[in-house]
Specification:
By secondary structure, the protein is of the alpha/beta class. It has eight helices and 13 strands. It has one domain: Metallo-dependent phosphatases (Purple Acid Phosphatase, chain A, domain 2). A hairpin with a 5-residue loop joins β6 and β7.
Length: 279
């Protein structure tokens, strides 16, 4: 029987990814893999990881995370962060091929067998599932077009922090990207809050996890996501969400969930973590 696995953030840790596939006895001819974004950066082998994922071809659905988009933007601007581990990709002979392939990937995916919505970070409180998929497709189309450069050059920023159907152009695209790839906490009005990256119970007063936002329109829909390595919990039953980033790059585990059975499988990662997480 076909199995469908969602897998949390790889962040350049190729060897644990290969070990996980071996442990799962993953069969590319019959099984399917959904990678929840942040394929690269901070880890030990971002180039090898990117090549390995691309090599899976149609056996994998790939989502974009904030680190993947950062790679695309930094490749244009030359502006990198101190902790980036992306130079190997940019100096590789197949760099252009890899970056072009990366721009073709998704921001959101509704798995057709189970109906599970798959995203990197979260879903805006104001969106139902159809809204989310439509807005994801809008930005995906831009990234695949001649307008990609304009978007990538204006990628960074925390504003706007609340959705409006009246948003247009770069503001609209930036909000959509931030909702899908950067959000963790929101306020009671669903406004994105970027200052807290730790566990929900340690957040400032008035902030709560995006999946607990009052009136969230995607409530009732099973959702799997990554991005939040300090969440300290995989399954939140009351909200029907699963957070699968368990900090592999920091010496935690690489986590997969088989969407049909609900089974959660973890592959231990090497303990020599580069540094404590900051994003």
């Amino acid at each position: 029987m076909k199995r469908i696995f969602a897998v949390g953030d790889l962040q350049g840790e190729r060897r644990p990814f290969e070990q996980l596939l071996e442990h799962l006895q993953f069969d590319a001819a019959n099984d399917h893999l959904i990678l929840l974004g942040d394929l690269v950066n901070r880890g030990h082998d971002s180039l090898g990881t990117l090549r390995a994922v691309r090599g899976l071809d149609s056996a994998a659905t790939v989502l974009l995370g904030n680190h993947d988009l950062h790679l695309l933007a930094a490749a244009r601007s030359g502006r990198f962060n101190r902790k980036d581990t992306l130079n190997e990709i940019l100096s590789a002979p197949d760099c252009d091929t890899l970056l072009h392939w990366l721009r073709q990937q998704r921001l959101a995916y509704r798995e057709p067998v189970t109906g599970t919505l798959c995203v990197h970070a979260g879903v805006a409180a104001a969106w139902n599932v159809d809204d989310a998929l439509r807005h994801a497709a809008e930005v995906e189309s831009v990234l695949r077009s001649d307008d990609a450069a304009t978007l990538l050059d204006a990628l960074y920023g925390n504003q706007p922090d609340q959705w409006s159907d009246d948003l247009t152009g770069l503001d609209r695209w930036r909000y959509i990207i931030n909702a899908f790839t950067r959000q963790r906490m929101v306020d009671g009005d669903g406004r994105l809050c970027f200052d807290h990256k730790g566990a929900p119970n340690e957040a400032p007063a008035g902030q709560l996890p995006w999946f607990a936002a009052p009136g969230r329109r995607s409530a009732g829909q099973p959702i799997v996501f990554g991005h939040w390595s300090l969440l300290r919990q995989v399954h939140w039953p009351a909200h029907q969400v699963w957070g699968l980033d368990t900090g592999c790059v920091w010496g935690g585990a690489l986590t997969a969930m088989e969407l049909i059975s609900g089974a959660v499988i973890q592959q231990p990662c090497r303990p020599d973590s580069p540094e404590a997480p900051t994003a």
